[in-house]
């Protein structure tokens, strides 16, 4: 997958870039630019390395004056498809060369993010002057364009995937909260996902703060309810009782797991773990259920780590039974490698462990 992604930066794209720049800036030396891009290390470069390498090559061949270079790049922006990974080179240019040109950089980032996200490019500006940049992002959170509003939230996520960790905001996320407050009822799902992901980031270091926000926000607006549910996913997976209670997943002794069994307690790497169980309720009222299972995986050094998987959210009435037959794959993935040894599977009902089996992976 990584190899396929990095190939969005290819000969066709570079040819288009140099051609479009030359149309608006005839002094652009296309041959030098192409030679610089396709150096002896090009094939080995990763996705992010290719992106940054192209940016540096542009910096070495565009005018030295930042304002002039941004004018050129802005003029060719619409020649490239919106929303494409390849177009991140535009905000990346601002990240690399614009830190000493705040006003022009802010103007460019606002434009570029509407074409391809500037969520990574804003982060060095936050590090350089957090108060100034967060003030700007609060303004962006009320912008009429959804891409700019999303940038306000996504750009300040403390632990943005693929982006630098914002240590100051990780330690104290308070400056983020006015942005999220402005966006908590946003009409755009694109924006709401970002708000939820930002809160989920915060919950990993400040669960009490996110639980406080969840209690204050939940039940006020359908859009906000969706944000809070998605924002609390890590807390829910950890079986946090407060989080579960917010969404009506109460603990009860009147819910019973029956007939929990594995088809086999020995499987091969690349095979499937098949298991089944039933849930029975003696609760006099209808009960909301969050049904999950945990796998304690054996790792390369023999230790075990747990990963939780959601099966469903459901309701069950008094004296009723729900039946489940599930399959879990043990095929090796780029994100998970399997190792032989004794693993275990545990059912979780509303965050409470409700039965465990050991099984062997060969």
UniProtKB/TrEMBL annotation:
Family annotation (InterPro entries): ARM-type_fold (IPR016024), DNA_alkylation (IPR014825), HEAT_type_2 (IPR021133)
PROSITE patterns, A to Z: HEAT_REPEAT (PS50077)
Residues annotated as transmembrane: none
SUPFAM superfamilies from the UniProt entry: ARM repeat
UniProt protein name: DNA alkylation repair enzyme
Native organism: Gottfriedia luciferensis
